[in-house]
């Protein structure tokens, strides 16, 4: 049996996670452009990492190739459907960030689901987001501004998406909802 083959429950759970985070993305966008806009950029990049959680959470839960891309893309799609202020470009972000976040897991041959791998996945997703943002929205800023933005965004992503995604997976496993996944079965062994 091919362990990389997606089961129906894999697709359903990844989609549910993506939809839930799509709603969170939409709400986070309101915060980003609303009250949080009082924090000038690049400092506001410290709260950016919430948009990258599915890129790490998907692989940690599903543990199959494509989980980060699928979960992040579903979240981006739902966010777009709810009226993301960034429009259809949000879909491109979902694909790119999902692929970057998943790369950390792919680099281990989909064998490491530990905290350091999750942190690297979050940081890579943050790097992808930085690249897209600088190209699309901040091409005329100074090099120092771009580096500061990149450092804060990658730090935010490593902590919120990497550490946060890992902690969220453990919390979900403790409830028993992941018992049909390796992440949930590891809980039973502890």
Automatic annotation (TrEMBL):
<feature type="transmembrane region" description="Helical">
    <location>
        <begin position="147"/>
        <end position="168"/>
    </location>
</feature>
<feature type="transmembrane region" description="Helical">
    <location>
        <begin position="43"/>
        <end position="62"/>
    </location>
</feature>
<dbReference type="Pfam" id="PF09819">
    <property type="entry name" value="ABC_cobalt"/>
</dbReference>
<keyword id="KW-0472">Membrane</keyword>
<protein>
    <submittedName>
        <fullName>ABC transporter permease</fullName>
    </submittedName>
</protein>
<feature type="transmembrane region" description="Helical">
    <location>
        <begin position="74"/>
        <end position="95"/>
    </location>
</feature>
<feature type="transmembrane region" description="Helical">
    <location>
        <begin position="115"/>
        <end position="135"/>
    </location>
</feature>
<dbReference type="InterPro" id="IPR017195">
    <property type="entry name" value="ABC_thiamin-permease_prd"/>
</dbReference>
<keyword id="KW-1133">Transmembrane helix</keyword>
<keyword id="KW-0812">Transmembrane</keyword>
<feature type="transmembrane region" description="Helical">
    <location>
        <begin position="12"/>
        <end position="31"/>
    </location>
</feature>
């Amino acid at each position: 049996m091919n362990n990389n083959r997606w089961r129906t429950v894999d697709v359903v759970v990844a989609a549910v996670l993506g939809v839930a985070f799509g709603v969170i993305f939409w709400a986070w966008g309101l915060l980003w452009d609303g009250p949080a806009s009082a924090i000038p950029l690049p400092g506001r990049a410290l709260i950016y990492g919430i948009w990258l959680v599915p890129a790490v959470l998907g692989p940690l839960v599903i543990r199959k190739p494509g989980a980060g891309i699928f979960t992040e893309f579903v979240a981006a799609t739902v966010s777009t459907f709810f009226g993301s202020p960034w429009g259809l470009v949000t879909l491109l972000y979902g694909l790119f960030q999902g692929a970057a976040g998943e790369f950390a897991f792919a680099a281990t041959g989909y064998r490491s689901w530990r905290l350091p791998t999750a942190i690297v996945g979050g940081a890579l997703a943050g790097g992808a987001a930085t690249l897209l943002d600088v190209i699309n929205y901040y091409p005329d800023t100074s090099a120092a501004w771009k580096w500061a933005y990149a450092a804060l965004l990658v730090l935010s992503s490593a902590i919120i998406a990497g550490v946060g995604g890992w902690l969220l997976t453990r919390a979900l496993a403790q409830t028993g909802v992941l018992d049909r996944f390796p992440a949930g079965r590891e809980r039973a062994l502890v």
